Amino acid sequence: MNNNSLDKKIKKAAALIKNSLKKHENPVVACSFGKDSMVVLHMVRQFESDIPVMFNNTLVEYPDTYRFKNLMSKEWNLNIIETKPSKTFWWIVENYGFPLFTRKGHKDASKNCCRYLKEYPIAKILRKYKFDLYFTGLSRHESRLREFSAKRYGNYFYSKTQKHWKCHPIQDWTEEDVWNYHNLYHIPHNGVYDKKSPDGFILRTGCWCCTIPIKYGKTKFLRMNYPSLWRILMTKGLGNFIVEKKIGMSIPEPQLEHMIQNRPCFFDKY
Ligand code: SF4
User: Fold this and answer.
1) Protein residue whose Cα sits closest to atom 3 of ligand 1
2) Ligand 1: distance of its center to the CA of 11 in Å?
3) Which residues line ligand 1 (CB under 6 A)?
């Protein structure tokens, strides 16, 4: 990506932000303190430095995310509003199963998990504060669903179901654009991105305990970088769940503990 192209994208995003701010009285910027939302937060603050910042606190963010949020809150003097999950992650696991691995007799653990930890709490805050414009760092490259949504709605639109306007200023940016912008404006980044990453695993912020990416090396990533969190996940049911899936039976606790300590790690590959 050459500088010229990034320059054009920055100008386009800035114009969109400026114009949409003119049309609304009560905007908010969503920030997960990941690389993308940091770019949008930085850009929006060029026009409205005291804009409220909504942090969707799932209570299961990486420790680096909480540290970084606290740091940036002080350094940029942010006016942060935090959501609280409607149910805890562990309640979801107990009632529906792990995200992606729905328990028998239940419907869709992942969908319910995202609803209780993200969608409902965000909707509640938007209603409570009557925000009429919601900026996000959403990117079309992140998933097929986001690509579809980008094609269908564009980067500034009214959500009939959620009853507010949404603006995704960097929807068309690549990951490289995002990092180039960080370098250009010396924007600090979340420590999650500095962790060691197993082959094929994409470093992302968000819920540390999400089991959706375990096929791509998530358990290995956790074991390498956050061993105590990894142990929690293994001993709170995921360990035995993987054992059952791989060898067709569950095992008693002492044997599980032996497998947790054994190397190479049985749980790294799923
Ligand atoms: S990303 Fe994963 S852990 Fe987080 S809310 Fe969604 S399904 Fe749950």
Assistant:
1) 210
2) 33
3) 58, 89, 99, 110, 113-114, 117-118, 206-207, 209-210, 212
Asked whether residue 266 is domain-assigned, the answer is no
Look at residue 270 and tell me if it is in a domain.
Answer: no
* Residue range 226-247, pLDDT digits in tens: 999 999 999 999 999 999 989 9
Domain closes at, from 143, 160, 185 = 185
Distance between first and last Cα of the chain: 35
For residue 151, give the amino acid letter.
Answer: K
The answer on 199 and 180 residing in a single domain is: no
Residue nearest to atom 7 of ligand 1 (CA): 110
Report yes or no: 140 and 126 within 8 Å, Cβ to Cβ.
Answer: no
| Whether residue 117 sits in one domain with residue 216 | no
Residue 105 carries which DSSP code? Answer: T
State yes or no: pLDDT of 270 exceeds 90: no
**CA–CA separation, 117 and 115 (whole Å):** 6
The enclosing domain of 159 has a CATH number of: 3.40.50.620
If you average pLDDT over each of 12-21, 141-150, 196-205, which comes out highest? 12-21
What's the pLDDT tens digit per position in 103-113?
777 778 999 99
Number of domains in the chain: 2
Q: Whose CA is nearest to atom 4 of ligand 1?
A: 207
Residue 50 lies in a domain: yes
**pLDDT tens digit string along 162-202?**
889 999 999 999 999 999 999 999 999 999 999 999 988 99
Task: Please give the average per-residue pLDDT across 91-95, as a whole number.
Answer: 94
Instruction: Return d(Cα 133, Cα 170) in angstroms, integer.
Output: 16
Q: Which of 143, 161, 185 is the last residue of a domain?
A: 185
What range defines the domain where residue 206 resides?
A: 195-261
Verify that 94 and 202 share a domain, yes or no: no
Pick from 37-46, 68-77, 239-248: least confident: 239-248
Token pair in block for residue 168: 């995704």
